[in-house]
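W.,

You were right to be curious about this one. When I first looked at the sequence I had no strong expectations either way, so I just let the prediction run and decided to look at it fresh. Below is the sequence, 401 residues in total, followed by the output.
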Amino acid sequence: MKAKKVVLAYSGGLDTSIIVKWLVETYGCEVIAFAADVGQEEELDGLPEKAKKTGASRCYVENLTEEFVREYVFQAVKANAIYENRYLLGTSLARPVIAKKQVEIALKEGADSVCHGSTGKGNDQVRFEMAYMALAPELNIIAPWRIWDLNSRSKLFDYAKKHDIQVPVSKDKPYSMDRNILHISYEGGILEDPFNEPDESMFILTRSPEKAPDKPTYVEIDFERGAPVAIDGQKLGPVDLMKKLNRTAGENGVGRVDIVENRLVGIKSRGVYETPAGTVLLTAHRDLEAITLDRDTQHLKDRLAIEYAILVYNGLWFTKKREALDAFINETQKNVTGTVRVKLYKGTCSVVGRKSAVTLYEPDIATFDESTLYDQKDATGFLRIFGLPSRVEALLKKKRE
């Protein structure tokens, strides 16, 4: 394959720092670096200079945090999307918004190719490339990890040293970290043995539960049509709300998960995640739905939440299926408006109160005291009809015996 102008998804990390130089050496092409700010709070200043030093003609730095939170994170909250019951999709949700902007830049610059630094073993290659194919199928896709002979971290470090490329990790601390406003993920290195406990010094967003405050913190979250809009009565924009909740939940040790997950390519992978704000929002949102959605809609939505999580995890954001699921989800959220009070304490997040002006919870029906809206005698006929198939089956079985 020939490439004349390539737009690279660039982070300034080990892999993409090397890829800039490798692209120039391998294809003799022009390389345009693109760095996405999705709330990682890592140093983005200086990236253009670093990219140019290693061979890029220019470097875009685009702030996508607002779009990421509003259109991707909050939509996943509305969907109650959790992969394999534990992973809150922090990396999975960020990739499509990054790829979308990368494609826009490639088309604007008249590039013929796009490139990413994902390995041939992981999920991110799928997430990037499914987006590329859906949004600009005419572009060539370059995936260095599936082509080059730099097939180990050690070889990457040696290449960086040979070409005087500054990288932010070392052979002594080789685990991979990915950060955005929703989470931080840690993989590889010392974590590849699933029996090893993560070192406490690794964590950034959360305190250990042992060092969290000895008194619980109570937080009230207001939702409108399924989206969080305020904390403790203070209206906040999507980004500020996430930042505030990340700090509060993180201080209480909330949001750590250590899991072995099933990658799309069939590999079991151990990952450690910090997702403080996301943990609280998903817990609170599902509880608000409990009083604002009818039973059958809620049950269907719970089943589709699994489908939604798998779809996002597998990189299929830009598909008709996701659009159709979103149409259903958004319809269900019209009455998911109210307030949820959560208790944060030493790594736990518990809902302790919920209210809504459009609640479906009626105390007069739910009460164990005398009710004017429900006559318990009515249950007799209901149970006879509901249990009729089981009763008939049992009677016929006895008759045969």
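Here's what jumped out at me. DSSP finds 13 helices and 14 strands in the chain. And, maybe more interesting for your project: The chain has a mean pLDDT of 94.

Coffee later to discuss?

I.
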